Amino acid sequence: MSHSPGITRRAMLRQLAAAAAFGATAALAPAESASAAPQKSGPGRLKQSLSRWTSKAPLPELCKRLKSLGFAGVDLLYADEWAVVNDSGLKVTMGYPAKRDNFISMGFNDPANHATLLKELETTIPLAQKAGISNVITMFGNRVPGIDENQARDNCIAGLSRIAPLAAEHGVTLCVELLNSKVDHHGYQGDSTRFGVEVMKGIGSPNVKLLYDIYHMQIMEGDVIRTIRDNIQWIGHFHTGGVPGRHEIDGTQELNYHAVAKAIADLDYQGYIAHEFMPAGPDPFAAFADAYKICTV
User: Fold this and answer.
1) What is the value of pTM for the model shown?
2) CB 210 within 8 A of CB 176
3) Tens digit of pLDDT for each residue in 115-139?
4) Among positive and negative, which fits the CA dihedral 151, 181, 193, 16?
């Protein structure tokens, strides 16, 4: 892994997919039920975590250092990594259901993908419950020629509605991520809060929610605080990142993340806010510590 400004989560997915096979069963460790409310590790009203791909530190070391900073968990982990985080005393705040090079582009907007996606989730959801993991990520997918937006919305509703009962049975929330299609993920279908909320309303399940990535939605829409306030009931998870550049969330970028964090906390949000940025400075952990302080409200 690398802190190079040129690396993206998509590139990291390719590296990790090539590095290891999906090892879910071996990765599990005893944990409390996924329905149990996790406790905050540090001060403030928000539970904060860090996306795994943003650090090149070995996972045990990363967990130790994040715990010392007050973080509650680590985000975006494959099943063969879950036990390491659980053993450290931190939470896995978002799990992947599969290692695939096309994880982002292959989503529920295309019914041709449903069988594969449902099989992955049907396998992972019980494993997540066993490991005490309450969130599993999935994607809307890239736009497909011949499928207009209304059809894509209906396809997402149909596919995710099939898996929602299993998620509810196991106390797991499926988090469908909103991404920008302007800079990082050209062609991505779920590039607006409006589209995501329409899908959530169509499903109508508390176990299928949006992963609202603040970085991505600032690029596509702006008006972040009002949008979050208006749609918090459909949001199950947050990601951060500085705009422009996806670097530190400090004064070098355009959003006031302390104000955003306060707005989220004021809504009595009980989920996680996970930092997902590439540190540009010489000390990544100083950047992670600073992000934690900025979002401590």
Assistant:
1) 0.87
2) yes
3) 999 999 999 999 999 999 999 999 9
4) positive
**Residue-by-residue DSSP string for 161-221:** HHHHHHHHHTT-EEEEEP--TTTTSTTBS--SHHHHHHHHHHH--TTEEEEEEHHHHHHHT
Rounded CA-CA distance 110/122 in Å is: 18
Measured CA to CA in angstroms, residue 36 lies from 39, 111, 128 at distances of: 9, 34, 13
Parallel, antiparallel or unpaired: strands 173-177 and 73-75: unpaired
pLDDT per residue over 197-246, tens digit each?
Answer: 999 999 999 999 999 999 999 999 999 999 999 999 999 999 999 999 99
Q: In whole angstroms, give the CA distance from residue 138 to residue 262.
A: 27
What is the widest separation between alpha-carbon atoms in the chain?
51
Torsion of CA 188, 245, 135, 52, to 10 degrees: 120
Q: Cis (ω within 30 of 0) for the bond into 5?
A: no
- Which residue reads 């005490």 in tokens? 132
**Token duo for residue 136:** 């599993």
**Token pair in block for residue 163:** 């898996």
Q: Which amino acid is at 253?
A: Q
| Look-up of token digits 């209304």 | 150
